[in-house]
Structure prediction request, 859 residues.
Amino acid sequence: MTDVILRTEAVGKNFGKFRALGGVSASFPRGALTSIIGPNGAGKSTYFNLISGAFAPSSGKIVFEGRDITGTAQHHYAKLGIAKSFQITTVFPQITTLENVRIAVQALVSRYNVWRPRAAMAELVETAGALLNTVGLWDRRERIAGTLAHGEQRALEIAMALASRPRLLLLDEPTAGMSPEETRSMMDLIVKLAGERTVILVEHKMKLVMGISDRLLVLHHGELLAEGTPDEIRRDETVKRVYLGQREH
Amino acid sequence: MLPPNFVATCKRHRVVLSIAFLIVFPLLMPFKAIAVNILIYGLFALGFNLMFGTLGLLSFGHAALFGAGAYACGIAIVHFGAPWWAGILGGTLGGMAIAALIGALAIRTRGIYFAMVTLALSQCVYFLAYQATAWTGGENGLRGVELSRIAAFGHSINFVDPLTRYYVVAFFVALALFILSRILASPFGAVLEAVRENEARARACGYDVRATRFMAFVISGGFCGLAGALQALHLSIVPIETLYYQTSGLVVMMALLGGMGTFFGPFVGAGVFLLLENLVSLWTVHWQLFVGAAFVACVLFFPRGIWGTLLMGRAK
Amino acid sequence: MEGLSLDLVVLQLFTGLALGAIYVLLALGMSLLFGMLTVVNFAHGAFYMLGAYVGIMLLGVGFNFWLCLLFVPLVVGSVGLLCERFLIRRLYGRGIDYPLLLTFGLSYIMVECVRIVFGTTGLQFDTPDALVGATDIGIGYFPTYRLFVIAVTFVVLGLLWLFLERTPYGLIIRAGARDPQIVRILGIDVARVWLVVFGIGTGLAALAGLLAAPLQGASPEMGNSILAEAFVVTVVGGMGSLVGAVIAGLLVGVVVAMTSLLAPEMAQVSIFALMAVVLLIRPQGFFGRAGLMS
Prediction:
């Protein structure tokens, strides 16, 4: 049996009377890059929001490293070892790039200290700088985050997610709205990150993730349609019919 | 508008400069009483600005924090015969206590609701104080917060002398400025900015947004409570209107006029507002018309306020 | 003895409904403005006050009370239209706090203008002759004018319902309250709809002020404390919900009336205690959408 880092047991979500996600049960092996794919409205984002703690499921259970984390408040996720990037870019727009990451790093160390000068905590700046290096934004450290290019902001977001030293990194459509060039460097970055930790990726464009994923989960109409290696998914007749078929026409 | 080097230098030494300014300020004012008022309301606006400018939450209930400070100080001195410093300490703690009560409820809401709920809760405090005549004097206000001499470090100081009174108040304002400056430069100060800039991201980083807001509200209550206590000592009376929501409106205006989110903005705003009020009320009783118009103009044309616009002029 | 006190309670209930009717009109306007324009109108109390004074003015030039009921909302609503068109409209898209601050400033101007024209002391507002006295409502005599206030409010509610449900304009407003984007996509002149909504909202506030004037007189400050009470009603009912505004308005009125019966000095505080309880149990209010508040 491989080591499972995250498991969902029949998690579902209702918005009023609308059932956005039926009970989805799935396991994510540690160290793997798993992609969640599916056509628009398949429930990918809902599923992502449930496992990343943006809101609690209406039914079912989420288990992280053997511990039931269903309904845990969002701000505890960083401490658990789970970090995420949002579908819509979310950085602190009026603060410098370096300070963005420094604030993210600080969350591990100090949240309510009102007296110690920030300037005295040089080690945080160092860590933040190293993270910026990892995502290739060191040159941009003094820029105000809101003025960065779209692709750069997404990379910055990932640097901020890495600040909590997560064992599980969740990425929601990291290449949405990117130019082909930006997409390529982002995919390179994801592959690099996946070498060191577990990554779960939600992606709309199936072609992008086929080559890099260890495993794929296909959602359709709020249900789990298929799961397996890229090859298995490629051969799966149902997937072809509802997903590939739809995109080809 | 201002030469960049000058502004940069000012920023670096803002505490020293503030203190220097506080020392010279009363000598520039026609009446010392106005100078004291500007300091007290500036401090009040400073506390308010921590919520609105730094954290991005508009409170319309800050009258309750200011008033709680004033009443706590007044009650300590009138009913318990407390020494002056205990009154000031009591006022600061009183402001924080009411802030904790209101905050516990109000931080359950956000954005526009926060403004409405804080306003409603502060009105609740107003009506309670109105009814508790035995403690607060009700409609007539709490009278007799008289203080003619204060003892400090073995000396007895004449608090009736306007200039002495000014420097006593200025001492506490300088202390508050120093503390605020530390808070803004602290890790918690960074969290405040983060929460204002992007709540969801702050949460994902691991910050408890509600707890942060609550704590900021209580700290804000401390500054406002201190301002209220000084006001009670300065006026020798706590009028019931101190708690009315128009007082909250007043501090919103001052902070916006000066420039929210800037360090000195609140004092600039309080100064301009009070001087304007004094000038206009010399030739018409309807000064509120001008205050309202100035405020509307400020919202429409100078959303960054006077100080904020000056700073922006430099950035261009 | 027991029967008498029950009658007293029922009569007080009616008093509460009459007071609640005023709250309903205020909160309806406020909810409409918020739901549609996401503007929290801090001048709502001032428009309420203006309603009473425009009534006094119109009575002074020979109108009767019945005509006032029609013309006061029209006149004050027009003032509201002007404010929206020339001031508030500039602030859309600049953050939710700015219209709030602007309307707060406006309330200062309006109150001071009324002080200049009508003086700083309050004025008496006579109950129209036809409505003076009391009517037997089975369990006892109840002031006719208060019954009238309740009746007018229900008529206004009916008209508003017809307008929103049965006219094309109403359809647009309801759609816009749900999602302004859709209305824009449909190619409707949203600016015009907003203008109309602002007129209706402020007109309703003015009607409330006019109806309240015979009960408590008119003073430039009469809108000040009622603003906070109207906020409570909107928060309790759920922001932007018209049904919530009606139910919460009546409820708050009844709670105030009942508290004044039992512990008169706590009547004012009871409003806010009610809000505190609602916030603790159901932060989004009775009919508010969850998640909007926190």
Notes: Residues 180-194 of chain A form the longest helix (15 residues).
